[in-house]
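thought: fold this chain, then report.
action: predict
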Amino acid sequence: MNPKVDAYIARSERWPQEMTRLRDVLLGCGLTEELKWGKPCYAHGGANIAIIQEMKDFLALMFFKGALMEDPEGILEEQGPNSRSALRIRFTSPADVERLAGTLPDYVAEAIRVEEAGLEVGPAPDLALAEELQQRLDGDPDLAAAFEALTPGRQREYNLHISEAKQSSTRAARVEKHVDRIREGKGLRDR
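observation:
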């Protein structure tokens, strides 16, 4: 048991019982625990297998390569429409955790199998940029070069943010708002 995870669970106001029980199950599967990205993370042979995520309305056990796992119980779900590899299991009560406590070791074993087999989620499809972003990049080679220099995740994040706007004028305004950040090599949420 990692003392940093002890402290994390002790600070939890919403999900301490659920996390304590999940932790027991995960450690019982032979996983090691660390605090990564500020959350309890469980690994096997140095590879991240799962992470516990506290949400407002539920607690999640997210498997990093969940999209590659078998899901015989149908309990894995996507995190959102834009997630590609990670899938999670939701818990809303200690009873939820207890109900799945016997099933979770099979899912952990499957996640370990996926990791040990070296399976990887395929590359993301080519990014179809919002029209307003594409036009702005086409008209400014320096900005286009700066955008191309961003990591694929940062490019995707900008594109999603811009594309979410319903009106073209709003999408164009969002592009302009972030031009300087793109030129600086910063992502949408970078400081």
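thought: worth noting. Residues 134 and 172 are 10 Å apart (CA to CA).
final: tokens above.
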